[in-house]
Amino acid sequence: MSTETIVPKAQTTSKTSKLRWTPDKALWLLGFAGLLIGGIGLMQRLMDGLRPTDLSSFVPWGLWVAAYEYLVWLEVGSLFMFTVLVYVFKWNSVLPGMARTLYLTAVAILGMALILIGLDLGHPFRAWHVLVYPQWGSLMTWMIWLHVIYMVVLLTKLFIELRPTPKLKRLGTWLSYISLPLGIALVVVAGSVFGVVIGRPTWQGSALPLYFLLSALVAGTALLTFQFVVFYSGPRGEAYLATARRLGQLFLGLLIVGLIASALGGLVILYPGVPAQATALQLTLFGPYWWVYWVFHIGLGVIVPTILLLTRTHTARRIAVAAGLFIITFIAVPLNIIIPPQLVVEVVEKGLVIAYQGPGLHASYFPTLSEWLVTLFALSFGFLVFLYGYNVLWLRPRAAEPAEEN
Fold first, then answer.
1. pLDDT digits 0-9 by tens, 287-321
2. CA distance 169 to 188
3. Element (H, E) at 254
4. Quick one: DSSP state of residue 58?
């Protein structure tokens, strides 16, 4: 009898161990749930075009374009800062071991960005025309070509991390150096696409491409800092803590520089009081969605991380919280850059807005449920790509190796 009672217990224990809930399973479930729920918005986009969105003739760019720019900043900025720190400034202690995870993250973010910007296009399946029939006088052509070249470099670097032979590692070093001007060009051209739109005075001028570049550096440093603190798998001793603190100091310095640049740019716009420019900035600061700037961005995204990074106890966890909070809230920046300058038409050209009435001729904008669902689909897709690479392909941080000299 004792044997008969023990066997079922052993079998039950074995079954429960196989069905045991783990954090990895929860993350996979979360990713697939987001993909399925977001798929509803994707189906609406594919069947009904842009009609389920709140985009209009006056506001043709909204949430998806803002999210695309935000993701490009994270992708390019994090790899740019990693390459500069490892290959230029020779941070060869523990940081180089993060290469696999960083390249994997960049690929996942790239997937999110391409989904969003592709679905924002009126005919996304005609995007190949830009590659086959390029119009080199268009900045959009340059942006797409730069993105394709950057994507090839990124995927090649990730492949080299999977097959790190001596010859391929030398190739990877050269590709790292090549990626620096490519990344700068991609971000600057993406900013210039807005800067040359003659119908949006707030975007015009030479400052916007530089502001995009600075935003990419700040956001990329935050992502690099967060990932190093969270995913580093080596001994978490003095070298680890020293690197985390150095990254935190670098992030704080760039954050302060970015804040000063934004304040100076705002003062230059407000002082002369050019109607189109000043009104757009006033909408950002004091309009219906003032809380996006003051509470979400300045409060949670600037003040709180700054306090965390200025405290005497610079623990790795505190640094990660500051960087993570900044990453989440920084989406407010491209939203405020892109949307208010389009809404200003209702103020400075009110006669044009009220002259004609009809679907798609309104000058207001707030993302619809369909737009949020498509965004959820893109983010879930990238999240699952990261989980697959991290857990299945085992693209985890490894023991750091010094960067090769050339």
1. 999 999 999 999 999 999 999 999 877 799 999 99
2. 29
3. helix 238-270
4. S
